[in-house]
Amino acid sequence: MARSLNSVQLIGNLTRDPELRYTPTGVAVCTLGLATNRVWNTDKGEKKEEVEYHRVIAWNKLAELCSQLLSKGSKVYVHGRLATRSWTSQDNQQKSVTEIVMDDMIILSSKKEGSTGAYDGEANKTVSTPSEVAPEDMPDFSGDTSVDVSPDDIPF
Fold this sequence. Notes:
Blueprint: E1 8-14, E2 19-22, E3 28-41, E4 47-59, H1 60-69, E5 75-88, E6 94-107, E7 117-120, E8 125-127
Parallel strand pairs: 4-6
Antiparallel strand pairs: 1-3, 1-5, 2-3, 3-4, 5-6, 6-7, 7-8
């Protein structure tokens, strides 16, 4: 069996505020514009810079979190997959676009640049960096009793 991989990892800055919408069935979808920069020196010692612009799509709870926590200029790490979709426009032209469908993200901006936090697609929770967050802003996990661990369960 042949294996394949469709994985994208980007670190960049949002080019605009996230746009949150809902499908007719009530599913949240958020679109983001992300810019990534590449800087290099030519053989003559000139500094060159190239900017790539990416269209990123988030769905469900991640879409809602993106719209709440991100804003234009936010630095973010995005992990996802490439997806291409095609359609026929109103003027009968065939159109297509390749997007990054986000699986999870980590907000890299400082508090001054925007919100600070991370999203883990499996845990469905927003987690902030403790050193940058006041204790009263930390999530309260004291009521979470879903896991009972006794000292006998610890292997060391």
